[in-house]
TrEMBL record:
It comes from Heyndrickxia shackletonii. Keywords: Aminotransferase, Cytoplasm, Glutamine amidotransferase, Repeat, Transferase. Catalyzes the first step in hexosamine metabolism, converting fructose-6P into glucosamine-6P using glutamine as a nitrogen source. Homodimer. It is found in: Cytoplasm. Its main location: cytoplasm. Its EC number is 2.6.1.16. GO terms for cellular component: cytosol. This is Glutamine--fructose-6-phosphate aminotransferase [isomerizing]. It catalyses: D-fructose 6-phosphate + L-glutamine = D-glucosamine 6-phosphate + L-glutamate. It comes from the Bacteria. Coiled coil: none annotated. GO terms for molecular function: carbohydrate derivative binding; glutamine-fructose-6-phosphate transaminase (isomerizing) activity. Residues 43-182, 212-350 form the SIS domain. The lineage of its organism: Bacteria, Bacillati, Bacillota, Bacilli, Bacillales.
Length: 360
């Protein structure tokens, strides 16, 4: 590969560290000459016309789509459904009158996503692809493209593409809101700048995060991630990262669902990583932590400045509450990285996985 690791032992670590820079590149790439965030007016017009947005993706890109749904619904006030491409292909939901499709794909080559794109284009619908690769298949075959500007991602476990996808989705949501005449809730350029700085702080906290990975994940066979609202979605991604590269069985789910099944799996010492970055569910997620702790779990609370308590293991810097996934995912990426490292796994090339899956 012509992309060098430089002084980094693994591409994954390099790509995690590139995230603050990617945020700044995205802020620049999506600014007009007046310094305002801007998206091609054909794209915002297509969103404005749509009565419902269907996000279709796989893997980590699907997890970014879940966060994207919140952003588009909260800011642009358009209902959004998020679908796993391989399910959508064979079990198409009843579509709205005026759907708009958004395909999220780092590579732009994923066969499952492409199959849905071909189908919906045949049905006469418009599609937007959000991808890291200009000229990729999903970009060429869609009506519109938004680029991630994340630079090549080599490690199989996706990191900087996930945060880039969320950042681009936030800009898309915010600019569409403006086009729809919805009053601006916050200054997104400013808030994304705060995110970039917060990411830097996290990238400088590797030693502390490595200790957490070592302490919780060196010997365990499983690990749970819990969260509510946006934290739930980030937990899904944290669990996927951990599974992919450390082979620890990991599951992410909504805190409130614990009592409906998963709590049966909690044993003495089971690691439970809980995210607490959302003010409106801060008390309830902490209640869930108490429930698992009472059954012997080894809890690791990752909270955000302003919401922290003495029991928390790691505290991320404060960012806008809609943008927390951009930074709460960073310690989870690093936890997965160090867990894999301590378990002697091949971080950049995990078994059975491919960077880009071009078969259905
Ligand atoms: C593969 C990769 C994942 C990725 C997924 C979707 O399974 O290993 O990291 O999230 O494909 O890829 P895409 O390029 O469509 O985002």
């Amino acid at each position: 590969s012509d992309i060098e690791k430089g002084t980094y032992p693994h591409y994954m670590l390099k790509e995690i560290d590139e995230q603050p820079l990617v945020m700044r590149k995205i802020i620049q790439a999506y600014q007009d000459i007046n310094g305002e965030l801007a998206i091609d007016s054909d794209i915002t017009a297509a969103l404005k016309e749509a009565d419902r947005v269907y996000i279709v993706a796989c893997g980590t890109s699907y997890h970014a789509g879940l966060v994207g749904k919140q952003l588009i619904e909260k800011l642009a006030k358009i209902p959004v459904e998020v679908h796993v491409a391989s399910e959508f292909s064979y079990n198409m939901p009843l579509l709205s009158e005026k759907p708009l499709f958004i395909f999220i794909s780092q590579s732009g080559e994923t066969a499952d996503s492409r199959s849905v794109l071909v189908n919906v284009k045949n049905l006469g619908y418009k599609a937007l692809t959000i991808t890291n690769v200009a000229g990729s298949t999903l970009s060429r075959e869609a009506d519109y493209t938004l680029l991630l500007h994340a630079g090549p991602e080599i490690a199989v476990a996706s990191t900087k593409a996930y945060t880039a996808q969320i950042a681009v989705l936030s800009i898309l949501a915010s600019v569409t809101a403006k086009v729809k005449g919805i009053a601006e809730e916050f200054d997104l350029i400013h808030e994304l700048g705060i995110v970039a700085n917060a990411m830097e702080v996290l990238c400088d906290s590797k030693e502390e995060i490595e200790k957490i990975a070592y302490e919780y994940l060196t010997v365990t066979r499983n690990c749970f991630f819990i969260g509510r609202s946006l934290d739930n979605y980030v937990g899904l991604e944290g669990a996927l990262k951990l599974k992919e590269i450390s082979y620890i069985q990991a599951e992410g789910f909504a805190g409130g669902e614990l009592k409906h099944g998963t709590i049966a799996l909690i044993e003495e010492g089971t690691p439970v990583i809980a995210l607490a970055t959302q003010k409106n569910v801060n008390l309830s997620i902490r209640g869930n932590v108490k429930e698992v702790t009472a059954r012997g779990a080894n809890p690791c609370i990752i909270s955000m400045k302003g919401l922290e308590t003495d029991e928390d293991r790691f505290i991320i810097p404060e960012v806008h509450e809609l943008l927390t996934p951009l930074i709460s995912v960073v310690p989870l990426q690093l936890i997965a990285y160090y867990a894999a490292l301590h378990r002697d796994c091949d971080v950049d090339k995990p078994r059975n996985l491919a960077k880009s899956v071009t078969v259905e």
